[in-house]
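Exercise 7b. C-alpha cells:
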C-alpha cells in the first residue's frame, strides 16, 4: 500500500502506536501523534481521521479488559454516561466525514496544536474529596453537556479527547482519577464503534496502516496499565508537545 511504501514511516507508525497506547492509558493525547503522522504518510485529513479510529478501538478494548482484571472498571454508570456521549459523537463524526478537505485539514491541524498547548499548560484536572460520591449525568446539567461535547469532539477529531473526558468525569461528575481514567477508556471505545462505522461506510479507512498502528497501541496499553497508579504524565506531555508541533508542521508543509 502506498502509505506504507517507506519502511521508516511504517516503523514510525508502529512506534507511535506504542507511545500513543501508553500515553492514552495513563492520561490521554496519544492521538495527537497518530493523526498528523498518518497525514504525513500522504493520507487526506478525512482518511487519516478515519484510519486512526482502528487503533483507538483496539487499545480501548484492551485497556478496559486490563482495568477490569484489576477491579477498577466501573461498568454500572456507563449506560447513563454513554447517552450524551454517543449523541455528540454522531454529530461530530458526520461533520468530520462530510466537511470538504480544504476546510477539514486546517481545522484538524489547528485543533491538534491548541489541544496540545492546553494539555501541557492548562490541564485543569480537579480532584474530588475522598468521601465525595460521583454524580450521574442527569444530576448535573454541566456534566451532561460536557459529555455531549466530549462525544462531538471525539467524533470530529478524537486526538486529545481523553483530557476533555477526564475534565468532565473528574471535574464535573467527581469520579476519582483512577476510575475516571477507566471510564474514559470505556467511553472512548464505545463512541469509536459509532465513529468508525460511519468512516467505514464513507470509505475513509485505510486498514493496513490502521492495523499497524493498532498493533503498536496494543503493546502500549499493556505497558501503560501497570503504571497507571504511579507514573506522572507531566514529562510525557512536554515531550509529546514538541513531537506534535514538529509532525503537524511537517504535515502542513507536505500538504
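Sequence design result:
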Amino acid at each position: 500500500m502506498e502509505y506504507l511504501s517507506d519502511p521508516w514511516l511504517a516503523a514510525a507508525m508502529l512506534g507511535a502506536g506504542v507511545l500513543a497506547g501508553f500515553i492514552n492509558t495513563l492520561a490521554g493525547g496519544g492521538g495527537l501523534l497518530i493523526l498528523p503522522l498518518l497525514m504525513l504518510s500522504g493520507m487526506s485529513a478525512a482518511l487519516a481521521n478515519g484510519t486512526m479510529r482502528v487503533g483507538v478501538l483496539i487499545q480501548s478494548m484492551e485497556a478496559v479488559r486490563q482495568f477490569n482484571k484489576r477491579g477498577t472498571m466501573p461498568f454500572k454508570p456507563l449506560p447513563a454516561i454513554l447517552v450524551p456521549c454517543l449523541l455528540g459523537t454522531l454529530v461530530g463524526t458526520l461533520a468530520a466525514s462530510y466537511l470538504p478537505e480544504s476546510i477539514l485539514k486546517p481545522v484538524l491541524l489547528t485543533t491538534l496544536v491548541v489541544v496540545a498547548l492546553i494539555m501541557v499548560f492548562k490541564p485543569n484536572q480537579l480532584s474530588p474529596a475522598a468521601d465525595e460520591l460521583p454524580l450521574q449525568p442527569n444530576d448535573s446539567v454541566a456534566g451532561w453537556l460536557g459529555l455531549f461535547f466530549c462525544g462531538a469532539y471525539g467524533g470530529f477529531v478524537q486526538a486529545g479527547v481523553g483530557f476533555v473526558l477526564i475534565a468532565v468525569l473528574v471535574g464535573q461528575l467527581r469520579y476519582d482519577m483512577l476510575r475516571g481514567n477507566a471510564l474514559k477508556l470505556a467511553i472512548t471505545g464505545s463512541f469509536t464503534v459509532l465513529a468508525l462505522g460511519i468512516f467505514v461506510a464513507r470509505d475513509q479507512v485505510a486498514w493496513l496502516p490502521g492495523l499497524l498502528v493498532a498493533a503498536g497501541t496494543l503493546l502500549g496499553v499493556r505497558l501503560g496499565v501497570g503504571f497507571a497508579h504511579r507514573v506522572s504524565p507531566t514529562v510525557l506531555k512536554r515531550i509529546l508537545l514538541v513531537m506534535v508541533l514538529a509532525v503537524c508542521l511537517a504535515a502542513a508543509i507536505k500538504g
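Instructor comment: The chain has ten helices and no strands. The radius of gyration is 17 Å.
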